[in-house]
Amino acid sequence: MGRYIVRRVILMLPTLVIVTFLVFALLFLSPGDPVLLLVPIDEVNQMTDDEMDELRHKLGLDRPIYLQYGDWVINVLQGDLGRSIHQRRPVVDLLAARFPVTLELALLSVFAASVVAIPIGIYTALRPGSIGDFIGNIVALMGVSAPNFWVALILIVVFAVYLRWLPAGGFVRISDDPMRHIERMILPVITLSTALMAVTMRLTRSSMLEVLNEDYVRTARSKGLGQRRIVFVHALKNALIPVVTTVGLQIGRILGGTIVIELIFSFPGMGKLMLDAIFGRDFPVVQGSALLITLAFMVINLVVDFTYAFIDPRIRYGD
After folding, report:
1. How far is 73 from 67, CA to CA, in rounded Å?
2. Does residue 44 sit within a domain?
3. What value, to the nearest 5°, has the Cα angle with vertex 13 and ends 9 and 17?
4. Count of domains forming the chain
5. Which of 42, 52, 65, 69 is most buried, by CB atoms within 10 Å?
6. Among 123, 121, 158, which residue's Cα sits nearest to residue 140?
7. 28-51 pLDDT, tens per residue?
8. In the structure, what pLDDT confidence band is assigned to residue 267 with cuts at 50, 70 and 90?
């Protein structure tokens, strides 16, 4: 197990380098000058070319891209992600304030989707062709087809505008007011979990149908084992392996794809931070965000691999 972990960590390093360098290069090659965005509009026309060049030199923007990237890597290894050009704050502080919001939103969405979708997927697999199976497939198809932003707007109109059961947006930290925090998490979590719920339900159903037709399941039935034991002891463990893979990948997707949802519900998460940084050409913030999301995605994949051994004891990671 120890050697396996070391190998996986070593394989993470080239991926981190490639992803961060590509982001760095795209920012460097994109049109626009961050210095012009940094200086107030009324002061731009008053600055001379020498003053603009001096400001670029202070920010290190006049150096070749490979030197800028090398300096950034050295600073990252020392725990320094730089300072935001616009907010004049350390990038580490900005990420520490925003990442927990997005992470909580992603984990709650995946948990809600799994709790609902897996039991329904098992139920429809055990009763193929029934009315419940038909309704489940229709609901899953609707969930996959509906865009997140459309689901968010419908939920706001129904539950916030007409029924007035829940607030339309805004974020309250759980340390400030737990109840208001929960109220403001409900609609975003439902929005993000809708598509994942549909995908997980359909995958659980198809995986269970495949496993239930295996020889060892038919052997278990011929021995007189009960349906509950066959499903939850023998079939479910094998059926959950592709489901766990999909759910784990979806956590990473949600971490990097919550921009629209965070904008709609006014959540101060990573999505809004990255969007503002991209439009403002705040290079250090974009690079730090890309590094954090990539690293989180890799860690999630590693955890998913270890989950396989927990679900199926036959899977072992040898040293």
Report:
1. 10
2. no
3. 160
4. 1
5. 69
6. 121
7. 776 666 666 666 555 556 666 676
8. confident
